[in-house]
Write a structure and sequence with these properties.
binds arginine; 9% strand; globular; 572 residues; alpha/beta
Length: 572
């Protein structure tokens, strides 16, 4: 389905062309003076320079060609040559109806249906998930849904960090605790093991070396360490799965760095055959520097001096796996901005070794940090990294006490409602900022039921539900014949422009555009709702028109929420 902007641009372009000007001047945009008109076209100014005529004359000629077109309520020349446009209500009504009857709600579907492979989540086994993993999960899930909503095929992989030094450190600490004897594994004391091990490795060089040796051993298939590794994985992955389930984040693949081990020989083979692999201080590296680099990009370490694989090795071998099994058109890595050097190295190396075809796009979609009120990365009180589950608990307990104090009917599942509001608050608070930016985590602000928050969006849907519950369902079935009020028109126009927002959000890979549009809809609904007394309206045609607009708003808002990975609540 074409967007309204496209339809208008076609009309204006045809008019420019019919008057002897290039069609490109017919580009229509949303008006930046909504108080004056809905859309505008400023093409007459650029055309004036080329055709040596005044913009007002050009604008006058073109608009006169369009006066009889019923799509326009008004098309007129303003000031020195601006074309101001308002569309007619009957067009708006038909367009909105068509959009809502479309299975994709009017969102343009990619013709090519590209296959997008997304790498997000990235938790490390044996380590607790922290707020950075939360950002990756929230943003990645939303990007995946956005790609699917615009007609792309997606494959998502959690890419567990399970093959590096953290696992070695964890095992070394377990050994210490058991005095070298048989290791009995229980999940209970898990969360403290890694932080202790990590601290020890900073203070005790022997401990660190032992952890490195253990890492090299399980990587090379040592049966004792590999069996320990497997037991740890079982417990850890089960726990990680629970967390993602709770967050409403899902993955097609639960692969990890370890799964790439089988592709390492192929990687080494490719690097060797291209003459890329060099020896450096006992390690095997690939030079990926380019003449214009500033600062210099260090070489990629493929094999360390003890023959262990590093972070880059697993990422490169994983690219081979993904290419072999899925042939993606695009690879997206939703990972902290602070890993951008790593991805620059990995992507350059992958290109040099032709691990994917030239045409395959590879993107690092980086994100900023979640900060505390001091503007620094969000920490626990004692200065440690904030665990994902602790952050959730914090927001949940604040939300639950509010929900419990509210006047819901007794049989509402308040815990379930509080859980959904919590996730809406956290996810929306995160996604409303452009992903590359840092933002300040503010519980009060994020959970407020007014303003640009997830709670406000849920509240809007719940309010519509309440209106619909109080009225007869047959009233929403009809297609409205006319528009009765300005706030109603403004709301309908906002809904009708949503497909534009979806397209742009995909193009920019920016879920914050979906957040903005959802907030626009909810605000427009709020104005419409307070101006019109829907439930008590006695004119049945009017009431029906308003109720179907309520339903349309709910459908559209839910689509936005779905792409943000936010579940609505029935009542609130
Ligand atoms: N496990 C890594 C971390 O916690 C993130 C993994 C990101 N994905 C990737 N393919 N490297 O920092």
């Amino acid at each position: 389905m074409k967007t309204i902007i496209e339809i208008l641009t076609e009309k204006l372009s045809a008019a420019f062309s019919a008057c002897g000007y290039s069609a490109e001047y017919g580009a229509v945009t949303l008006s930046d003076r909504p108080d004056l008109c809905q859309f505008q076209c400023n093409g007459a100014f650029s055309a004036a320079k080329i055709y040596k005529k005044s913009p007002a004359v050009i604008a006058g000629e073109t608009t006169s060609k369009l006066q009889s077109d019923s799509i326009f309520e008004k098309i007129s020349v303003m000031g020195p040559g601006f074309i101001n446009i308002d569309i007619g209500d009957s067009f708006l009504l038909t367009y909105t109806d068509e959009m809502l009857s479309d299975e994709h709600l009017g969102i343009k579907q990619s013709e090519k249906g590209e296959m997008i492979f997304l790498d997000y989540g990235g938790p490390n086994t044996a380590k607790s998930l922290h707020v950075g993993h939360l950002r990756s999960a929230i943003i990645g899930e939303s990007l995946k849904r956005l790609a699917a909503a615009t007609g792309r095929k997606t494959v998502s992989d959690v890419h567990l960090g399970d093959w590096g030094l953290p696992m070695g450190l964890f095992i070394a600490e377990l050994e210490d605790r058991n005095g070298g004897g048989e290791i009995a594994l229980s999940g209970s004391e898990w969360s403290e093991i890694y932080p202790i091990a990590s601290q020890k490795s900073k203070e005790d060089e022997n401990f660190k070396q032992r952890a490195q040796e253990i890492t090299a051993k399980f990587q090379s298939g040592d049966s004792y360490y590999l069996s320990l590794w497997k037991q740890i994985m079982k417990i850890s992955v089960a726990e990680i799965k629970e967390i993602y389930k709770m967050l409403g984040v899902s993955f097609d693949l639960w692969h990890g760095e370890s799964d790439s081990e089988q592709y390492v020989p192929e990687l080494i083979g490719k690097l060797k055959s291209k003459g890329l692999l060099k020896e450096s201080l006992g390690a095997k590296v690939v030079d990926v520097s380019e003449p214009d680099d500033n600062p210099a990009i260090p070489p990629v370490i493929i094999k360390m001096s003890n023959n262990a694989s590093g972070y880059a090795t697993t990422d490169l071998a994983t690219i081979i796996e993904r290419e072999t099994v899925f042939h993606p058109d695009e690879l997206w890595y939703v990972v902290d901005n602070r890993q951008s050097l790593h991805f620059t190295q990995v992507f350059r190396c992958a290109r040099k070794a032709s691990l994917v075809p030239e045409k395959t796009a590879i993107h690092h979609l980086g994100f900023g940090t979640m900060n505390g009120s001091d503007g620094k990365p969000y920490k626990t009180r004692d200065g440690g990294v904030m665990k994902l589950t602790d952050l959730y608990d914090k927001v949940y307990s604040a939300t639950l006490s509010r929900v419990e104090a509210s006047s819901f009917s007794e049989n509402a599942d308040k815990k379930e409602i509080a859980h959904k509001i919590t996730l809406a608050a956290i996810k929306f608070g995160d996604l409303m900022n452009h992903r590359s930016k840092n933002y300040i985590f503010d519980i009060e602000k994020f959970t407020a039921s007014e303003g640009k928050t997830g709670a406000f969006l849920l509240y809007t849907v719940a309010r519509i539900n309440s209106v619909l519950r109080k009225t007869a369902p047959e009233h929403t079935d009809t297609v409205p014949e006319r528009i009765y009020s300005d706030t109603e028109r403004a709301l309908m126009l906002t809904l009708a422009l949503s497909n534009e927002a979806f397209e742009l959000a995909y193009k920019e890979k920016a879920p914050n555009i979906i957040c903005d549009n959802a907030y626009k809809i909810a605000s427009a609904f709020s104005k419409f709702y307070s101006e019109n007394h829907i439930i008590s309206e006695s004119d049945i045609s009017k009431k029906s028109a308003w109720l179907s607009l309520c339903l349309a708003t709910k459908t559209m808002l839910q689509k936005h929420l779905d792409i943000l990975g936010i579940e609505p609540v029935e009542i609130m």
